[in-house]
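Shape is hard to put into words, and the shape of a protein is harder than most. The fold becomes a row of whole numbers, each drawn from a learned catalogue of backbone shapes. The outcome of that step, for a single protein, is printed below.
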Amino acid sequence: MKARARLAVELDSRGRSVVRELSSASPLTLMPRRGAVRPAAGPADRAVVHLVNSVTSPLGGDELDLRVRVGAGARLLLRGVAATLVLPGHRRGGSRSTVHVEVAEGGTLEYLPEHTVVTARAEHEAEFRAELAQDALMRCREMLVLGRSNERPGLLRTSTHITRGEVPLVRQTLELGNSRLEASAGYLAGARVVATESVVWKNDPVEPTSGEWWSLTSLAAGGATALALAPDAVTAQHRLTEALRTHPDGKELTEEHW
């Protein structure tokens, strides 16, 4: 299966963030929420769109592509509503998913999908690319679960590339399901869930912070990365929230978004 979806959000004449383009293809189904959520700070409304995995996917051989554009001054909250289950296909070969986002001057994107479960024998490659204007804001989350209960995970290679004003902020690649790497205590220390969030927001942390299986680290060219390890997704989310609370903009980053 090959599927592509597109989403574009812009400001209208009244300064509201509205969906200007929406094109879905199963399993990438985009569902805009009626109305908008007014944030605690800032004059602009925020468009809210839910990403629904409308059929079982990705399977081996699937290719999924999501393109998102946030126009100048617009705000978008794009969040998932259910976990993604990565499964093997009937034929040999892995699956691949790409998310490519662009955020224009003064725009804000919050990309908060639900967790991804990598099942046994699955082979999947996931790529996230973001191109931000110099004063754009963005946060993107990734929570990976290594297999279902009492199941060894398949193979997953995930990469994140973020640039702001053509300056690279993040270049990160993570490989999961590799037995050779899992043998090292310095890999995931036996954790079954790894959660990360890249934050390019109003302020940057001055010093790194850490707690029980979580950390928040500033990036060399701006922004920060939060990391949490846990035995399950609920605990991982809790620890990721703890990390984000230590961010200078922690109150805004940890408020409930619906």
The chain has three helices and 18 strands. The chain has a mean pLDDT of 91. The helical segments are 179-182, 233-245, 250-253. Residues 233-245 form the longest helix (13 residues).
